[in-house]
Structure formats: C-alpha cells, structure tokens
Amino acid sequence: MSPLLGSETEPSVDRGAGITAPSGFRAAGVAAGIKDSGKPDLALVVNDGPYDTAAGVFTVNKVKAAPVLWSEQVLRYRRLRGVVLNSGGANACTGPEGFQDTHATAEKVADVLGVGAVEVAVCSTGLIGERLPMGAVLSGVNTAACALAGTAEAGLAAAEAIMTTDTKPKQAAVYRPGGWTVGGIGKGSGMIAPSLATMLVVLTTDAVVEPDTVDAALRAATRATFDRLDIDGSMSTNDTVLLLASGASGVEPEVDELAAALTAVSADLARQMQADAEGVTKEIAVTVTGAAGESDALVVARAVARDSLVKTALFGSDPNWGRIAAAAGAAPAALDPDRLDVTINGVLLCKGGAKAAERSTADLSGRDVVVHIELGLGTGTATVLTTDLSHGYVEENSAYSS
Amino acid sequence: MSPLLGSETEPSVDRGAGITAPSGFRAAGVAAGIKDSGKPDLALVVNDGPYDTAAGVFTVNKVKAAPVLWSEQVLRYRRLRGVVLNSGGANACTGPEGFQDTHATAEKVADVLGVGAVEVAVCSTGLIGERLPMGAVLSGVNTAACALAGTAEAGLAAAEAIMTTDTKPKQAAVYRPGGWTVGGIGKGSGMIAPSLATMLVVLTTDAVVEPDTVDAALRAATRATFDRLDIDGSMSTNDTVLLLASGASGVEPEVDELAAALTAVSADLARQMQADAEGVTKEIAVTVTGAAGESDALVVARAVARDSLVKTALFGSDPNWGRIAAAAGAAPAALDPDRLDVTINGVLLCKGGAKAAERSTADLSGRDVVVHIELGLGTGTATVLTTDLSHGYVEENSAYSS
C-alpha cells in the first residue's frame, strides 16, 4: 500500500463495509441494461433519516455534465433523500435533452421514494457525448427501488454498479467512539485530476450534522484526499462527491471529529482508486517539503506527478531524478536549483541540485515509490498520489472508447 | 505532412541543405567518444564573418543546465564566432564542476579557433545529472576543428552529431531573392514543451543583421514555431536556439523579411521534430479559433495537445471528441460549453457543446490528425503541434535512461 495521507492520525478503516454501514441508509445496485455488457450499471442510495442534511463537491471543469448541473442546483438546499447513479454513460455534452434526461431520472426516483425531485441527486459516468437509454434508466430505477436494503451486500452492490474501467468495487467505513459511523463508495480509475477526479463518491453518516457545517466538513475532507490524487492530469466533466447525513445515531460529533472521519474514509477510497488506476504498476507518492508555501508545494508535487517522462521512467523502475528535477523546475513555483534535494525510496540521489549518489542505489523493484523533493525555501508541504504511465494505460485508453 | 504553421506565406524550404547553406559558415560533426555507442556526438559550427552578430533563446526552466547558463551569459554581447554542441550528456544538475566543464569546453574551442571564449556558445543534450567525459570532449574539439568545412556534407554531419533519440538528422534552408540565405539544424524528439522543447537548434544566415534587431527577429521566429510544438508537456533543462549571422552576402533584408525566413526554417525543423517524435504514429495539429484572445486560444490548444486521454484516443484512431471537450473545459481560459464546436479531420462532431455527427464519420486511419476547436467567443487563434501517446513512447521512455 502506498504511503498514507495523514496516516498517523487516521481512524482505522474497514473495507468490508461501505455506504450502508451507518444507520438510516439503504442501497441497491442493479443491471438496468445501460451497459451493452449487461453488467450492473445503476445504483440507488436512500437516506431514511430522521435528518436529510447533505453537501456536494463537483468538478470545476467548465464543461459540466447534465447530472452535475442538476445536483449542484438541488444541493443548494443542503438536503437529499436519495442519490441515483449510473455507469455506462456520462450524459455530458448532451445539450438541453441531456438535462431533461437527468431531470426525468430524478423525478422517477422521487416518485418511487415518495419524496420531491429536489431531494434527489443524480450522478453519471461513462462515455461523453451520447444520450442515455432512458427506457433502461427509468425501468432500472424501479428494479433498484425493489432491491433497496440496509445490508452490507446491498451497499457492495451499489459500489459495483458504478464501476467503469475499475476492476474492483471500492468501499470503506470507519466506526467512531460514541456510536456514529461514516461509510462510502467510490469509482474512478482514469481521467483523474484535480479538482476531484473522474470519480463518483457517495459518503454517508448517521451522525447528526448541522446544515451550516456539512459543506465545510466535506470540503475539508476532499481537499486533503481526492483533490490530491492525480492519475493523468485529465479533469472529468462528471466528478461528484456527495455526503448524506441521516442523524440516525443521535450523536452530534464536533466538526473536527466529523471531518477527521470523513477524511479517513475519503483517503482510503482515494488509495483504492490509486491502486486500481488504469494500467497501474507503481503506486507513487510525490511529497514536496520546504516550499515557500503550501500552494507552491502542491504545484510542484502535481507537476512532477503529471510528468510523462517521470511516469514512464518509474514504470521502467528507473530512479531518473534528472527528469524529476526538470519537471520541478518547470512548475510555476519558487525554486532555487542549488537547494533542490531529491530522494527516491529513501535514497538521497540529488543534493543541492547535483548528483549525491548513483541512481542504482535506489531500489524501485517494488510497487510503491516514494519521491521526496525538498526545496529548502520554507515550510510548505504537500503530497500528491499518482501512478506510472504504462503500456496498460495506453492500451486501456486507446483500444476502448471511454 | 501535418498542417503547416503559417504555410500560406512561407518561403519554400530545402531539406537537402542546412547550416552551411549560407555563406560564411563551416561545420563539422565527429564521434568524440562521449556516447558509449560510438556514434557521432560532437558538432562545431563556426561563423567566418565578416560579421558575428548572434542571438539566443533558452529554456525558461528554473533548473538550467550549465551550457545554458554559460551561453545566456556570452550572448549578452550579441556576438558569436562559434558554437560547440554535444549529445551523450546534458551537463545539467552537475553543480559548479559542471559549469567549469562547460567553461573549459568553450576555452578549448576559442583556443583552436583563435577567438575569445566569450564568442563561443555551448549546447549539450542527453542524460541529466552526470558529468561529461571531459577528455573525450576536449579531444573531440580538436578532431572537429580539423574536419571543419563549408560543404553540405559537413553541415549534415553536424546535424547527425547532435541526435539523441532522434532517428533522423534535421536540417533545412531557405534561399531568398537578393541572394541571402537562412539555414539550420536541430534535434529533439521528446521532453518537448514550451517554451521551446528539448531541442537544440542552430540557425545561420549570411544576411547582414544589426545587433539591435537580431534578438527580436529570432524571438518572433521561435514564438510561432518551436514554442508551439508540444510533444509531452515536459520542459527541458537544456533548450537552446541560436542564430548566427555572418553578413557574408552583403545583403541587409528588412526585419520582417528576415523574420519570415527564420520562421520558415524554424517551422520546418519543428515539423521534422514532430514527425520524428518518440513513438509517434499520429502527427496532430490542434487549432483553436474564436477564443477571447490569442493567449486563451494557446492555453486551450496546449491543454488539449497535452491531454493523455486525448492522445491515447488518437493513437487508437478514435475521434473521441468528448475527451477533447473535457480537456478544453479544464483549461484556464474563457469557454462557454454551449458554444463549443469540435471538428476532427474536417468532420463537425460536436456543435454547441453536443453531438453533431456519429464519431465514425471522422476518418482517423491516416497519420495526420487535425483537431479544430471553435470557442465562439472572439477572434483569438492558435495552433499547437503534438503527437499521439503510443506504446512506442512508453517503451522508449521506460526502457532507456535519457
């Protein structure tokens, strides 16, 4: 497993449970016939309350999919009773008709749940530019509604139904002292870049959360986790992270406690996405320290994490620190080449901008690679998780439309 | 051949000639033993005058190789009598010792030519972080000095000696009415991004050029050509484009004429680099029109040209305009998704942000791909040349240190 983001303070995570671990939630995942393959492609998540506090974080791409435009609107009220998610089509770049499709899907879910459409968020993932087969979507909502359950199996089925090029379903849960819980499901394995990734994530909690604080708690969690996962620098049209709080535990944690639990689940889901990224053979953590500020640290870490020459070298298990230095030096951040240190998997290869040890002394034969760049300028620090650029990545993204 | 940058107004280019096409220049390329392979690795270019006007454009990477630091300094005087170039080692991230190596190389060239070291520029390309074998370099300068000639063969030998992962030497020349000429050699096939690329280019002319205008003319040429070639978004530590003017023709062209001739040679060398890029199977031109301004057009064109998902789709001959729309929408430029048109190889696939035609109607079976993005906002236009992201690129950059 790759180095943990904030691992020292994280609550322990249970990957055997997910979205239905907190009380007050039911879920379902079904094969609605949206995917030609016949695999599961529609999920439903329902918050049975007593509260329905919610928040969302969305892609900042200017080209936003219809479900993102819809869900951003309904989240203004900070309330959600249900979320419907589909794989097999992004419903992005589909014009006014695509937005009507999203609206009709929300109305259908509202109808079967007996709630209002403005209490239903919609998430989609898949190919951009094609309309969804609405007959399959709407009948799938019926099927999913009948399958709704609060069991672990139902939560896992929801995680499976949102997979695209993911090879494994992704879920996680943390149990907190006092009897409240955070759970989540996620999907994403390519087109992953800030802000967020081509990811859909639904987080649930049975904590009592005030509408005033739910948004800040979710943003604090995503900022430290999903926003620092960068697989290929490509930003999706559909990225969505939702948080639904049922209050069923009756416990109202401090905001910091809530944010820590949300961060733990989010960090674990991010690591699952990294481990399952398209064509991944190396799980890479790029940490920058000594930057003039945190934003500079992040800019440099991201530039190195995105660099094709760095990523292909690491695919080849080559500790090519010169490419790392070149990528860092090209980033729009303060950098003094004479103070630049580069350490790979614990071996200081570059000190003060020049060779400190033979490259062969760094062992990159394993799956995990830790790149540490010290800038020697200040106290700014940031870590970005990424993967290598492999034949598998090229194969997966050239041979299939996605 | 891919779409020409400014082809309509370009003088015709002769690839059978290069750096020795203009009068007043001699060149040589030899195998000095810097490369383990024994292939040619050291080139010398000499300006015999009567004038020695010169200019240079260099990488904007904050991590600059020793030869870049040296050549930037000597170019302050706008005069060069000679240029020594080596492949087989970048002499980057080599500390004060590396700078002393560059200085010693320039002194050696000055010695054999009977000029001052401040009249000698140095260029290096190859692996970052290793010192050069100075014995080989210095004796190679002697050998090259003996081989100097004003013949076409000598110019081609210089082009061959600066190759790294290039598979072909790159040279070009244009002959202008009135009897003056511009020639050039270049290398570069990966780590190519603005500003400039991992490229070394030496341009020569026998025009009479004033020291006051030489810099502006060179910058105008590079801005429209090398700065708009982006193979992998990775910016080198060693990029250098030099212009040497001998004045041997006795003709002093207008600045616009000179810039046009320099642009023609530079554009042709850039296209040769694109055609010979690492792993290339598609030569891609991304043109953005209708942007709010030229800088916005360039930002969007570059974002699309760099996007791994766009580049892998094009490797797979898949006209996946959704990925193009997503990459454009993620760029930091003004964009209205409802006004976005995407045309690939002449077929309008996306109109007003939604599907306009089946993707299969665009034919990507050939080597050339023209992506045209119309933003519908203003009059800003820019074209960036790139290549696809192929198995060959991954192979070349993972299996070998470079």
UniProtKB/TrEMBL annotation, chains A, B:
It catalyses: L-glutamate + acetyl-CoA = N-acetyl-L-glutamate + CoA + H(+); N(2)-acetyl-L-ornithine + L-glutamate = N-acetyl-L-glutamate + L-ornithine. The record marks 125-126 as: Involved in the stabilization of negative charge on the oxyanion by the formation of the oxyanion hole. It is an enzyme of class 2 (transferase). This is Arginine biosynthesis bifunctional protein ArgJ. One of its GO terms (biological process) is ornithine biosynthetic process. NCBIfam families: ArgJ, PRK05388.1. Pathway: Amino-acid biosynthesis; L-arginine biosynthesis; L-ornithine and N-acetyl-L-glutamate from L-glutamate and N(2)-acetyl-L-ornithine (cyclic): step 1/1; Amino-acid biosynthesis; L-arginine biosynthesis; N(2)-acetyl-L-ornithine from L-glutamate: step 1/4. The gene is argJ. Belongs to the ArgJ family. One of its GO terms (cellular component) is cytoplasm.
